[in-house]
Amino acid sequence: MGDIFNLQDNPLFKVLQKEKKLDEREIAFRYHLNKIANYIVYYCGLFEILRKRDCNKGDFPYRILKYERVLSDNEIEQGSLGNDNVISISGFKTHLELFKEKANVILLSELVQKISRNEEIPVNTVVLTFDKAHKSIYKNVLPLLRQFKFPATLFVPTAYIGRQLMLWEERVLTAIKLIKQNNIALNIPEIETFNAIYQNFNSQIEIPTDWSFAFITYLKAQPANERFAIIETIINHLEKITSLPKVDTFMSWKELELAFQDGFEIGSMGHSYQFFHDLSKEEIHEDLMISFQTLAEHNIKPCDILCPPDQNEFFPETRKMLVELGYQKFVGGEFFWEGNNSLELGQYCHRDTLYDFTRSLPNLSMILWNLKLLGYK
User: Fold this and answer.
1) Which of 347, 330, 313 is nearest to 270 (CA)?
2) 153 beta partners
């Protein structure tokens, strides 16, 4: 991941060049103008003024941030499944440095309680959340949170803790990667159907969509039985030549217990990481009960906020079922359902994903303002 000061590595200007057909001289001019503007906004206090204006117009004074994996540069370069939801250790540390200077970092449960009680929320409030309990959270995140004395919330799919398993997204992408590496054609009708959709879509837009991301999105849109039938077809295709590798992706129970003892708030993503919208009310209840019982067996008392595995597809019908089961508070993905909160649908807080765009505080602060990730009153 290059520094944003390196023009050739700057993704923003690669987009500009592709979309606007700008020549290198104009791109360089815009790049340096943007760089100067970021420094002016940051060092002259305009950042606070602009955010105060946004909050006066009704923007929230808080943001909930979502992270998954925090890796070293070497680990990122060696990554085989893309870098979606990945940030470098140095990039994450830069975020924490800015939050130390500009933000009031609190626990998710504290924020949700303040929202539900209609209490005044401290200015510049930021909540740090982490999904799926990847080992990198224990190895790379926990020491930094200790250093900065920041609280955080970790959501876990309990069936995967301490086991050499892959989530279904990782299984299917790993299988496809291995099949391609062995030069075996993926003559699977479902993939050919997807490829036709993918190529037609990409022919109509300027910037092609990443194939892996698009394929996972396509699978998520399929009914559960069809989705897993496609996945098993791909896995069976792979097993003609080899098997999926064993992985050590998730925290052990000992590591999760230590993280909890060290101040991490723990929440549930369910037990088996099945999309809630694929399950009946009874199946959701059973899955969550197993999750809570498993955490209790390891002396971990979870917070009362759920993070559904299908967080970006977490529709009101599913929320209504959960409320009927006695669950009232949810945190989700990047889609903004905040306006749909009610007694019937419970309290839903969306989150923003903050990637490793830059390791410069002035540029990072500008990105935070553009994405409205920090609020000022």
Assistant:
1) 330
2) 129, 265
Given a contact cutoff of 8 angstroms between Cβ atoms, the answer to whether 206 and 167 are in contact is no
Give the position of tokens 């950042």: 47
CA gap 9, 142 in Å, rounded: 30
What is 264-310 written as a DSSP string? -EEEE--SS---GGGS-HHHHHHHHHHHHHHHHHTT----SEE--TT
CA distance 143 to 137: 9
Nearest to 258 by CA among 304, 299, 302: 299
Identify the CA nearest to 168 among candidates 262, 278, 36.
278
Residue 290 amino acid letter: I
| DSSP code string of 309-347 | TTGGG--HHHHHHHHHTT--EEE--SS--GGG-BTTTBE
Please report, as a single letter, which amino acid is at residue 179.
I
Q: Residues with Cβ < 8 Å from 145, sequence gap 6 or more?
A: 96, 128, 151, 152, 263, 264
Please report, in tens digits, the pLDDT of each residue of the chain (377 residues total).
334 344 455 544 555 555 555 566 776 776 677 677 767 776 777 767 777 777 777 777 888 999 998 988 787 776 655 556 788 898 899 889 888 987 899 999 999 999 989 998 877 889 999 999 999 999 999 999 999 999 999 999 999 999 988 899 888 988 988 888 888 777 888 888 888 888 887 777 666 677 888 898 889 888 899 999 999 999 998 888 888 888 888 999 999 999 999 989 999 999 999 999 999 999 999 999 999 999 999 999 999 999 999 887 788 889 999 999 999 999 987 665 555 788 898 998 888 887 655 455 666 665 665 555 554 43
Tell me which residue of 166, 248, 177 sits closest to 212, measured CA to CA. Answer: 177
CB 345 within 8 A of CB 320: yes
Residue given tokens 């998954």 in the structure block? 68
Residue-level pLDDT at 204: 72
| Cα 375 from Cα 49, distance rounded (Å) | 10
* Whether 41 contacts 369, CB under 8 Å: yes
